[in-house]
Amino acid sequence: MKALILVGGFGTRLRPLTFSVPKPIVEFANKPSIIHQIEALVNCGVNEVVLAINKPEALMDCMNIWATKLGVKITYSRETEPMGTAGPLALAREILTSDGEPFFVLNSDVICPFPFKQMLEFHRNHGAEGTILVTKVDEPSKYGVVVASETGKIDRFVEKPQVYVGNQINAGLYIFNPSILDRIQPKPTSIEKEIFPKMAAEGQLYSMVLKGFWMDIGQPKDFLAGTQLFLNHLAEAKPEELVPAGPKIHPPVLIDPSSTIGEGCVIGPHVTIGPNCVIEDGVRIKNSVVMEGVKVGSNSWISRSIIGWKSTVGRWNRIQNVTVLGQDVQVSDELYINGSSVLPHKSVTASLPVEGTILM
Questions:
Q1: Torsion angles phi and psi, residue 158, rounded to 5
Q2: How far, in Å, CA of 328 to CA of 228, rounded?
Q3: Average pLDDT, the chain
Q4: pLDDT digit string (tens) for 20-58?
Q5: Which one of 43, 110, 152, 323 has the minimum C-beta count within 10 Å?
Q6: What's the sign of the alpha-carbon dihedral 218, 236, 244, 44?
Q7: Angle, to 10 degrees, between the axis of helix 33-43 and the axis of helix 116-126?
């Protein structure tokens, strides 16, 4: 089986992290975010994954390592211009149709339990051309709602409804028969606005409801929220991957074994710490992501923030409220950083108390 992942874009919503690393390989829970998707695809029987992207060179070294590790072929479909969410399928037509089997299409920003085996079974059972995974939301008026029958057959799509018509939205994960490619030309096209309504009108599109969490992690606040949901999921599904609870650990917490945690620290809940980090004595970290090679000085306090690769946080700092430090940021001692973004290779020598500050 084949799969195509819509990478596209420049990752502008996840800056300053994406100034240093392409969005699909920014680590989510200590692993390139796109690898969570590819692992689940491989477990479902996919043997070739196509990445639809404008600049594949920046990904290739990382992807080659993981392709070998997972035993999957990874190929690239280069976009010379933005092709929307349907155009890339037409560009990759030869690969996607080579085995005559249904193929998956994924939005690279999505994190969830990835129930691909169940999707494939559901898709084959209903026999129509396409299946959309949908997730339930509390405030459907903010989204485009998928209206479907009890069997999952999609009737229509309603954009930001002001009257309640349902609470299921497109989760950005699909499976299609190769015949869908007869509907798509190799030009910029929206699959959601131009292809899906026609398929639904012909009775060729079904929805399957996702059981479990879902998040688009394409921007920092959602990256942190997705981390919380993912760690909660791991605590139930694979607790052996997490650090056991203890005086220092308020679970769920994921820490790479190569990192060191000092005396008197309290880590968690909902924290990931990458490889080769040094967390000095008396540090408090909660609801945060600490990337590889970070040093956090003694008695600092970090909450709802992302600390980028090889950054150094001095002693007695307070960092909070969706602050994002880019790669190799140096923070002096005794500062307060509130809801700010700091670009890579910058030094912070004064407090940043005003939410929304960007240090360039």
A1: -125, 120
A2: 25
A3: 92
A4: 988 888 999 999 999 999 999 999 999 999 998 877 677
A5: 43
A6: negative
A7: 50
Q: How far apart are CA 340 and CA 15, in angstroms?
A: 12
- Is 160 annotated in the active site? yes
How many helices (H) and strands (E) in the chain? 7, 29
| Distance from C-alpha of 291 to C-alpha of 295, rounded to nearest angstrom | 10
Token pair of 53, please?
């992207």
Structure-token pair, residue 48: 């070739």
3 state SS of 271: strand
H helix intervals, the chain: 33-43, 57-70, 87-91, 93-96, 116-126, 196-201, 220-237
Cα(273)–Cα(289) distance, integer angstroms: 6
Q: pLDDT tens, 184-243?
A: 888 888 888 889 999 999 999 999 999 999 998 989 999 999 999 999 999 999 999 999
Whole-number Å distance between alpha carbons of 22 and 8:
11
The two structure tokens encoding residue 104:
């998956």
What six digits make up the tokens of 284?
């408090």
Q: How far apart are alpha carbons 123 and 178 in whole angstroms?
A: 13
The catalytic residue among 69, 160, 187, 198 is 160
Gap between the Cα atoms of 246 and 45, Å rounded: 39
- Within 10 angstroms of residue 351's Cβ, the number of other Cβ atoms is 16
- Written as six digits, the tokens of 140 are 């459907």
